Amino acid sequence: MDKRQIFEQVQSALVQLFELSAEDIKPESKLFEELDLDSIDAVDLVVHLQKKIGKKVDPETFKSVRTVQDIVEAINNLVNAK
How many CB atoms lie within 10 A of CB 35? Predict the structure, then answer.
């Protein structure tokens, strides 16, 4: 899975879970300020992504996530970890 595919998965999850417009979701979009997510939404997103990728996401990894691109990088690192 490459970063473009991960971005598409994250974008799809944000649209599906939070009824956001796909056009509003860009790599540089700030999760809390621009997309109006809160900490509960972030947990829901992590749970959804865990199911999609089939791997457990360490909550510590997501504490520093601020943008959509941060999520893509975190998932990419997890998926491609040896």
Answer: 17
